[in-house]
């Protein structure tokens, strides 16, 4: 990942943490809205012939309006993965930006919850082959995901998630989030 991208990710995460610490809102029904930030790691599954699965890493933040409904935004990038197709070799990487509405269902007395999300994601795939030709593909489309999480305590949870980011890209991740 380029230095500028790393710096922007660090600044975004820091901003989300500082804003989230001040953003709790009481709705008068006994529930206080809950902001959160998290990190995730996993693999992109690209529907391109001969492409390895690049390692994915990302940050996300969101806000739960009540115990079930919320919003979430995320950025996920990847390292370079090898590909070999039609006698060509090269490297490919992917990144995705998304905004989602979320729904959580908490299984009673377990700490486990199921999560669904639906929204819009922009996914970019870029590469370079042995003929020094660059290629790129960008797609903005409907995206969604399902996951399973475990609340370790009221302020920390871990999640495993599968996302469908358009027609050519899937994403499988595990992550952790800090709630405020």
Write the layout of secondary structure elements.
Layout: H1 3-21, E1 34-46, E2 55-64, E3 69-78, E4 81-85, E5 88-106, E6 112-129, E7 134-153, E8 156-165, E9 169-179
Antiparallel strand pairs: 1-2, 1-9, 2-3, 3-5, 4-5, 5-6, 6-7, 7-8, 8-9
- Give the radius of gyration: 18 Å
Percentage of β-strand residues: over 45%
Shape: elongated
Mean pLDDT: 84
* Number of β-strand runs: 9
Count up the helices.
1
At the fold tier of CATH, the topology name is Porin
Taken in chain order, the helices and strands follow as: HEEEEEEEEE
Low-confidence stretches: 4-28
| Overall tally of structural domains | 1
Percent of residues in helices comes to: 10-25%
| Main beta-sheet annotation | 8 strands, antiparallel, barrel
Protein name: Opacity protein-like surface antigen
Domain Outer membrane protein beta-barrel: 10-165
InterPro entries: Beta-barrel_OMP, OMP/PagP_B-barrel
Keywords: Signal
């Amino acid at each position: 990942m380029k230095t500028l991208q790393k710096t922007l990710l660090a600044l975004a995460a820091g901003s989300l943490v500082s804003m989230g610490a001040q953003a709790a809102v009481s709705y008068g029904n006994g529930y206080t809205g809950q902001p959160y930030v998290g990190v995730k790691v996993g693999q992109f599954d690209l529907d391109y012939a001969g492409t390895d699965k690049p390692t994915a890493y990302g940050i996300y933040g969101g806000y739960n309006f009540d115990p079930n409904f919320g919003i979430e935004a995320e950025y996920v990038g990847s390292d370079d993965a090898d590909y070999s197709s039609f006698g060509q070799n090269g490297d490919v990487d992917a990144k995705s930006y998304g905004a989602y509405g979320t729904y959580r269902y908490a299984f009673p007395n377990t700490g486990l919850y199921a999560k669904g999300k639906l929204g819009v994601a922009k996914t970019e795939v870029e590469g370079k082959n042995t003929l020094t030709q660059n290629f790129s593909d960008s797609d903005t489309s409907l995206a969604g995901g399902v996951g399973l999480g475990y609340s370790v305590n009221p302020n920390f949870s871990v999640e495993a998630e599968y996302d469908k980011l358009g027609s050519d890209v899937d994403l499988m991740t595990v992550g952790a989030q800090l709630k405020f």
